[in-house]
């Protein structure tokens, strides 16, 4: 049943109702004006094109006015829907609403849905029907349409129905999936029906499947069809506001952007249903809003935060391009005004006054100065900064801000003097941290009077610190200045007496009545009491009432040439060099300042020991160098040192030439206890003890057997084999006799340097060393053998001493000798010749020790050695290290004692 048929059926009802009861006229209008109307149209529609015609003939006489929500279409009084402009019908169709009004003002609403016609398939000019006769997609339904449900949507059909007896089935969303039961199909005819009203904002489109089956075999007779049903939008949603409508803008700004309102609409985008327009319902004198963008701006510069910090405006949003029939909403927007510094701080009083006593110490709070500021608190527009613009030229005051109260705090930083100024007039200005804006006002200032109260004071020295400049060394009694004080109340110095408070060196006398400063003791600029050339003196003045005042005198001492250059070190050490002549540096110093000190002049004075040259090294030092190699001893050299003014004196430099080890002199000074004679006696005892050790070693080695002593190679002794394992040192039993004669000074490299006479075998008793060197020499030169050594039948024997009766002859580890007598046997006179040879060697050695230079004998006494020097890779083994034998195989037979020593010596 179409709309025209429905109108014909309702026409008689309307006639009789209108005739009998006029009050039911509106219902009759409703019945002749359908609630919805569907039509098809080409895609492109020109102006004046009639889309369709609604049958309103039965009620045309009562309808007076038609309104359309779509500006592109209108409805004529005869029910024709006409295009007013050239327009386009989209694939989704066009939906709008038509209102009809009768003479009584009653309205009736009709939803119009216009869908696009499907194009026909044209091929080679012949119109042909598609092989498959499925209904053309998409299909359309109007949202929220619940009139006449269920209602037909479209009939679907398949060409297979011409061959088979078929039925239709649909499935998918809207059918058997959520939302279930919206659509159904009549199985035999294929008519698609809608059963429920649908909300487009929830389900804008449905896509489901249609299938066709043979009724007898239930087999599909055609391919499934995808069916799309679009839900045509109705303007059923009003625009909505965002969650927050709070904005901010600075006060006193015109044309400034406050913010933007972005309203939303759930209806279909791109249609008039979602074309929103904005409007301010109030506050139009202060603000404006763009109807399309929703941007709010200020219209005036009269907005004052201090008068009204928050502004409230009502905003309306309406769809349908703001048409009167559009849906709308309203909301209140809050506009907060931001602060600018348009209010300077103002003083609560026009002036301030405060009293303070003179001489009060610094950092005293005198006054709190309050201010008021209307700007936003705790911001730079409100926070105050205070300045003393006048009256503080001497820096007696300072002012700062209390961060909590914003008050100005006036402090006294230096004591005030009533006699100098009884009142100080200050001017205090208050300003903000931020500059002023939006106002013609300026920073305010007020006067502040500081009254200085008088206090009875003691004398005051003028000036407080006296500066004097004098030369050092002025004679006692010299007046160098006068330092006096006055009573500040009377400005008179009468009756004031002066005393010293601090005079560290007692150099100055202060006149008690006149304050004269006299030199009491000679002032020395180089004294420890003088710092940086200045000496400080503190003076006290006492008035008749007993009040005191103090002052300080700063005396700058000018230098005079009262100090001669001196050598801080007169004893210098010069280390011998193997590849050149050594030198030392002579350094001088002078307590005076330039030009009374350096550069110094150094000059050698006659006479001096040795051959030396003196050359300048720098302004305060000279290089003293030997011209030729000098013996190792101490040389006294006079050197004249003068300053830049030519003042100086001769000073003796003592240079010790010595051998050095790691740049350290190894020469030992002479003993202050024994002297040369005592040391020679000690050496004699060492020699005799060494001889005794040699004889004992020979006896132990032969174990009572006769041992032939050969005179070959001038051995002069024999190696002893020892089994002693106890602590202590083994005495050497070998005396080396050089092949050549001894020369004076030829100590380096001989047996003495290698310690041949330095091993004592633990005897340690020097009692025998008191014999004179001449006596010993004579004994060794004698042709007769030593005492206890006898010659008989070509064999030399020696009476055995009781070695256990005296500890001074104990030869090893505390053990006694195996025999109490030993014999030395030698064919012919070999042994005698050996002893005479040793005697000659010792005689030469002792003579050298008695007549050699100072210090040379030190090589022939006991030394602890850490450094073995150069030589055999086997290392030093005492007397044997200097032997020049070509064959050293004998070292392999020296026994376990020697092997242990060799192992220890070879360890790295």
Q: What does this entry look like structurally?
A:
This protein is mainly β. The chain has 7 domains: 3-116, Cadherins (Immunoglobulin-like, Sandwich); 133-232, Cadherins (Immunoglobulin-like), CATH 2.60.40.60; 246-338, Sandwich (Immunoglobulin-like); 346-448, Immunoglobulin-like; 460-558, Cadherins (Immunoglobulin-like, Sandwich); 571-665, Immunoglobulin-like (Sandwich), CATH 2.60.40.60; 675-903, no CATH class. 11% of the residues lie in helices and 32% in strands. The chain has 6 helices and 54 strands. A 4-stranded mixed β-sheet has the order 1-9-8-4. Strand 10 (122-123) and strand 11 (126-127) form a beta hairpin. Helix 1 (3-20) packs antiparallel against helix 2 (25-32) and helix 4 (773-781) runs antiparallel to helix 5 (830-851). The longest helix is centred in the C-terminal third of the chain and has 28 residues, at 675-702. The protein is elongated. The protein starts with a helix and ends with a helix. The model is unreliable at 1-29, 120-132, 669-673, 703-722, 726-828, 853-858 and 870-885 (pLDDT under 50).
């Amino acid at each position: 049943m179409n709309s025209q048929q429905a109108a014909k059926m309702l026409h008689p009802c309307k006639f009789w109702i209108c005739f009998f009861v006029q009050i039911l006229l509106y219902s009759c209008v409703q019945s002749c004006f359908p609630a919805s109307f569907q039509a098809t149209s080409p895609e492109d529609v020109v102006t004046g094109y009639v889309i369709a015609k609604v049958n309103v003939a039965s009620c045309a006489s009562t309808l007076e006015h038609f309104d359309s929500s779509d500006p592109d279409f209108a409805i004529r009084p005869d029910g024709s829907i006409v295009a007013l402009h050239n327009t386009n019908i989209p694939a989704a169709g066009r939906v709008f609403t038509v209102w009809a009004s009768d003479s009584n003002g009653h309205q009736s609403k009709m939803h119009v849905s216009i869908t696009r016609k499907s194009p026909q398939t044209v091929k080679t000019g012949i119109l042909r029907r598609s092989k498959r006769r499925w209904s053309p997609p998409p299909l359309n339904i109007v949202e929220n349409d619940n009139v006449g449900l269920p209602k037909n949507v479209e009939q679907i059909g398949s060409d297979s129905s011409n061959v088979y007896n078929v039925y239709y089935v649909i499935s998918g969303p809207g059918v058997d999936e959520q939302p279930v039961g919206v659509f159904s199909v009549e199985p035999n005819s294929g008519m698609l029906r809608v059963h429920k009203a649908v909300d487009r904002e929830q389900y804008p489109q449905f896509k489901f499947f249609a299938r066709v089956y043979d009724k007898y075999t239930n087999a599909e007779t055609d391919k499934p069809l995808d069916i799309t049903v679009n839900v045509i939008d109705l303007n059923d949603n009003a625009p909505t506001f965002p969650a927050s409508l709070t904005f901010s803008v600075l006060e006193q700004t015109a044309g400034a952007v406050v913010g933007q309102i972005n309203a939303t609409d759930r209806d279909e985008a791109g249609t008039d249903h979602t074309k929103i327009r904005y409007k301010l319902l109030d506050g139009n004198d202060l603000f404006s809003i763009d109807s399309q963008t929703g941007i709010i701006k200020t219209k005036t510069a009269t907005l004052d935060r201090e008068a009204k910090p928050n502004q409230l405006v009502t905003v309306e949003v309406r769809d349908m391009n703001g048409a009167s029939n559009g849906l709308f909403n309203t909301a209140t927007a809050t506009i907060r005004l931001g602060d600018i510094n348009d209010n300077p701080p103002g003083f609560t009083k026009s002036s301030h006054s405060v009293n303070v006593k003179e001489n009060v110490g610094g950092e005293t709070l005198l006054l709190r100065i309050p201010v008021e500021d209307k700007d936003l608190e705790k911001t730079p527009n409100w926070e105050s900064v205070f300045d003393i613009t006048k009256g503080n030229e001497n820096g007696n005051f300072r002012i700062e801000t209390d961060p909590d109260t914003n008050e100005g705090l006036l402090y006294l930083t230096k004591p005030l003097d009533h006699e100098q100024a009884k009142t100080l007039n200050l001017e205090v200005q208050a300003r903000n941290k931020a500059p002023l804006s939006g106002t013609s006002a300026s920073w305010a200032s007020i006067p502040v009077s500081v009254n200085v109260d008088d206090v009875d004071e003691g004398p005051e020295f003028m000036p407080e610190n006296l500066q004097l400049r004098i030369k050092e060394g002025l004679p006692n009694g010299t007046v160098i200045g006068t330092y006096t004080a006055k009573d500040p109340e009377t400005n008179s110095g009468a009756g004031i007496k002066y005393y010293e408070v601090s005079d560290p060196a007692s150099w100055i006398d202060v006149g008690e009545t006149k304050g004269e400063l006299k030199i009491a003791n000679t002032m020395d600029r180089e004294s420890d009491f003088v710092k940086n050339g200045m000496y400080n003196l503190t003076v006290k003045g006492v008035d008749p009432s007993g009040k005191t005042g103090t002052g300080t005198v700063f005396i700058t001492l000018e230098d005079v040439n009262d100090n001669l250059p001196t050598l801080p070190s007169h004893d210098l050490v010069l280390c011998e060099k193997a590849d050149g002549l050594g030198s030392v540096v002579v350094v001088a110093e002078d307590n005076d300042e330039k030009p009374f000190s350096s550069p110094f002049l150094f000059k050698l004075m006659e006479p001096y020991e040795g051959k030396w040259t003196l050359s300048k090294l720098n302004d305060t030092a000279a290089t003293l160098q030997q011209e030729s190699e000098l013996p190792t001893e101490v040389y006294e050299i006079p050197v004249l040192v003068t300053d830049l003014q030519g003042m100086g004196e001769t000073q003796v430099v003592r240079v010790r030439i010595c051998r050095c080890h790691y740049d350290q002199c190894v020469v030992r000074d002479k003993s202050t206890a024994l002297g040369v004679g005592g040391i020679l006696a000690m050496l004699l005892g060492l020699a005799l003890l060494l001889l005794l050790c040699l004889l004992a070693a020979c006896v132990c080695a032969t174990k009572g057997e006769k041992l032939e002593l050969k005179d070959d190679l001038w051995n002069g002794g024999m190696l002893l084999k020892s089994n002693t394992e106890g602590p202590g040192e083994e005495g050497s039993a070998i005396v080396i006799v050089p092949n050549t004669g001894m020369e004076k000074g030829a100590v380096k490299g001989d047996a003495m340097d290698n310690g041949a006479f330095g091993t004592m075998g633990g005897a340690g008793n020097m009692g025998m060393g008191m014999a004179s060197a001449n006596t010993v020499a004579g004994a060794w030169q004698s042709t007769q053998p030593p005492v206890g050594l006898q010659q008989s039948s070509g064999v030399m024997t020696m009476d055995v001493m009781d070695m256990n009766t005296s500890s001074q002859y104990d030869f090893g580890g505390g053990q006694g000798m195996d025999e109490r007598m030993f014999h030395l046997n030698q064919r012919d006179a070999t042994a005698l010749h050996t002893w005479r040879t040793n005697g000659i060697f010792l005689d030469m050695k002792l003579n050298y020790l008695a007549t050699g230079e100072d210090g040379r004998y030190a090589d022939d006494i006991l030394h602890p050695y850490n450094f073995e020097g150069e030589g055999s890779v086997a290392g030093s083994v005492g007397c044997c290290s200097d032997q020049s034998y070509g064959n050293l195989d004998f070292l392999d037979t020296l026994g376990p004692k020697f092997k242990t020593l060799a192992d220890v010596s070879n360890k790295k």
